[in-house]
Amino acid sequence: MSEQKVLSDLEIAHNATMLPIEQIAERAGIAVDALELYGPYKAKINPAKLRLPQGKKPGKVVLVSAMSPTPAGEGKSTTTVGLADSLARAGNNVMIALREPSLGPILGMKGGATGGGYSQVLPMDDINLHFTGDFHAVTSANNALMALVDNHIFQGNALGIDPRRMTFKRVLDMNDRALREVVIGLGGPTQGVPRQDGFDITVASEIMAVFCLSTDLDDLRSRLGRITFGYTFDRAPVTVADLGVEGALTMLLKDAIKPNLVQTIAGTPALVHGGPFANIAHGCNSLIATRTAMELADIVVTEAGFGADLGAEKYMDIKARIADVAPSAVVVVATIRALKMQGGVPKDQLDQPNVEAVAAGVENLKRHVGNVAKFGIAPVVSINKFATDTPEELEWLLAWCAAEGVDAAVADVWGRGGGGDGGDELATKVAAALARPSDFHHLYPLELSVEEKIQTIVQEIYGADGVDFSVPALKRLAEIEKNGWSGLPVCMAKTQYSFTDDASRLGAPKGFKVHVRDLIPKTGAGFIVALTGAVMTMPGLPKEPAAMRMDVDSEGNPTGLF
């Protein structure tokens, strides 16, 4: 008897039957005239045309986070989709709110962001590639700004912009290390004013953060106007409003700002919109999409990027300060494979049973669970099941969670799907968590200085002894105080692989300090980015990029895409 072939994520997605997007909209309570169709299975929603039931209370938010990511895989997006499908299967009115994937990591090594197995949002190949063009619009707005800035300098520089003190870069939605540092304006007087420049990846740009934190079109315009892109020769900040181009940038984003409606394999409505990185930016889908889902559904399942030390902390300390989107329940995803890796097992030995390694690696999960509790919410641990997990390993982890007083469930949503029974136990645990009162609060008050906020995050969330500030960072702290920006929250830019700023230190390290090398005020987004360690705002490609296995067939269908 031959073994049954294990289908790839792409094959599973292509074998699924999608419903016309109008039917998904009807299921979500969205009128047809609020839809802007992008083919039969994708649409944008115009929030201004939504007709909502009178008296409906906003839906409760379930935030899905995870332990520290490893190459072994944690399956946070898969769990998000499977959990939402399982909650819908139990009769709840549910919507999903996810980020859009970045093309750079897709062609590099990270993979997509549409889930996996039988817990995916569809059409997965469209979503993982160009989708509805939102990222192209953000890229265009960002680069239009910088073209206008350099043109202003070339045309006489009435604002007195110092070309040596630019804090804003051009962007590209690609991993391209060759563009990290460039020189522009070469070739003589007619080619512009030469200066050192560089590129960030689109998802690390402030315009992407502004896009995702704006509450509506007017707020978008206002935030764009507040962006500081550089300083004058007198070291005064210069904003987009000073240049007078916030209206043009808003025009380039007017369609992209509308949330995208798609569906899961099981037919659960999903809003996929916006996509800031969580190790560089704040790592959450757009606020407009989250609030739209809350208006339409009773339960909104959303996620925050990477581990709970990054995306979840930023969701609760940045996104949830701007609008009333605080989570009523939090799920922390863990896998036996990742716990073994955190416990010191090499990747090529993760398939071997090893309860001792699970026990050694569980300290990483313990710190994440404890961190979530610091925001006043008792998390639920979702154990994302892999075929190589042994009953002994799963039973040990469930027993550990019980001894720690943490609700936990094994979820087989990759193989059995949320539309099947793979996530039923997890959905039951989460529903019970939603029914319990929570005492949500932020980690720190905004009245603290920027230095004190960073100290709080690294000590309370990362478990560090303190912070080392470089000389440039100390100078930037003084500038932030001088310019009146010290009341902003902090967005830590840190490796996702470790609680420290050293990606190689796994588990739950102690006795370390976090090194802050620079601070970048993002006055439009409304936070201060603290650059730590060697984290890059423009990633590079690996030795063997995932693009090497990708192609299309004779009918134009992608192959090799996960």
Low-confidence stretches are none
Oligomer: single chain
Number of helices: 18
Distance from first to last alpha carbon: 28 Å
Strand content: 15-25%
Helical fraction: 25-40%
Radius of gyration: 23 Å
Outline: globular
Detailed description of the structure:
With 562 residues, the chain is an alpha/beta fold. 34% of the residues lie in helices and 19% in strands. The chain contains 18 helices and 25 strands. The strands form six sheets. Strands 1, 2, 3, 4, 5, 6, 14, 15, 16, 17, 18 and 19 form a twelve-stranded mixed beta sheet that branches. The protein has a four-stranded mixed beta sheet with strand order 20-22-23-21. Strand 1 and strand 2 form a beta hairpin. Helix 3 (76-89) packs across helix 16, helix 6 packs across helix 7 and helix 6 (134-154) packs antiparallel against helix 10 (246-253). The radius of gyration is 23 Å and the shape is globular.
List key phrases describing it.
alpha/beta; 25 strands; 562 residues; globular; four-stranded mixed β-sheet
Q: In a nutshell, what does this entry contain?
A:
The protein has 562 residues and is α/β, with parallel strands linked by helices. 34% of the residues lie in helices and 19% in strands.
Topology:
Blueprint: H1 9-15, H2 21-28, E1 35-37, E2 43-45, E3 60-66, H3 76-89, E4 94-98, H4 103-107, E5 115-116, E6 119-122, H5 124-128, H6 134-154, E7 161-166, E8 170-172, E9 182-184, E10 195-197, E11 199-201, H7 206-213, H8 217-226, E12 228-232, E13 237-239, H9 240-243, H10 246-253, E14 260-264, E15 269-272, H11 287-296, E16 299-303, H12 308-322, E17 329-334, H13 336-342, H14 355-373, E18 380-384, H15 391-403, E19 407-411, H16 424-435, H17 450-460, E20 466-469, H18 471-482, E21 490-493, E22 513-522, E23 527-532, E24 551-552, E25 558-559
Parallel strand pairs: 3-16, 3-17, 4-15, 4-16, 8-11, 17-18, 18-19, 20-22, 21-23
Antiparallel strand pairs: 1-2, 2-14, 5-6, 6-14, 7-12, 9-10, 12-13, 14-15, 22-23, 24-25
